[in-house]
Amino acid sequence: MDDEELPRITPAHLRRGDDMCRRRLAREVHSGKRNVNQTANMRFAVSNRIEEDARLAQSELGPPRAEAFVEPYELEPEQRALYRAATRGYLDAFGDATAQIARLDFRTALPDLGVELSSNLGLAAELADGGRELRKVLVGAQRSARLVDPVETRVALVRTEEWAPIQLDIVVVDVIEQRRAKHTPDLESDRAEAREWIGDRVERVLELASDPRPRAGRDCQGCAFISGCAKHPG
Fold it and tell me: What is the distance between the alpha carbons of residues 134 and 127, in angstroms, rounded to a whole number?
């Protein structure tokens, strides 16, 4: 099957597909890659910019270069203030870490499941000692939220199999609240569990997406497919 024709599954679909409006779920899963990685989405403008500048700051092996974090004057004043705070938080967290940031694809095809997993894995740091560290940067998160999300972790384990085959640390940092968590998975057992869990969830999501009945509710907010929906006539 051509990658361009593969249904697109995200961590959000795996996490809450059972509760989503089936029409929205079906459209998101089968809409192709034109909706993937919409970096212009203003909700993520600051976090996207921090990640891109962090990649530039460690495009070569060494500690992050502070001068790579250039204030984004194209953003709104409030966003620029958030960017400055996030930059300070990132450098506090990783300023002494010698590494080179690699760029991983936004999608991973899973031919055996007939889908592709699509997600922002974060920053793929290749350390001086050969270690692999996946950095997930959060720009302000709810205090009640767990930093290491089990769904995101399972997706990361499957999607980093080629890049980090024998060792991986997952480091999640809220650069505003300065909360940090580190998870070192047992790759053999945890990847096996992740593949099995994702396989079961993908089967369920595809089953739900095959019956695209609309349902008005919280999924209407921010839905890109309101036009033509029977729940929103005229």
Answer: 10
Dist CA 196 CA 204 (whole Å)? 13
Label the pairing between strands 115-118 and 8-9.
parallel
Task: Record the pTM.
Answer: 0.89
Cα end-to-end span (Å), the chain:
38
Q: Strand 99-102's sheet: what is its strand order?
A: 99-102, 123-127, 132-138, 169-174, 179-183
Contact 90, 137 (CB under 8 A): yes
Q: What does the block give as tokens for 44?
A: 């993520």
The domain spans of the chain are: 3-220
Q: What is the rounded distance in angstroms from the CA atom of residue 161 to the CA atom of residue 190?
A: 11
pLDDT digit string (tens) for 99-150? 999 999 999 999 999 999 999 999 999 999 999 999 999 998 766 678 999 9
Token pair for 217: 């509710």
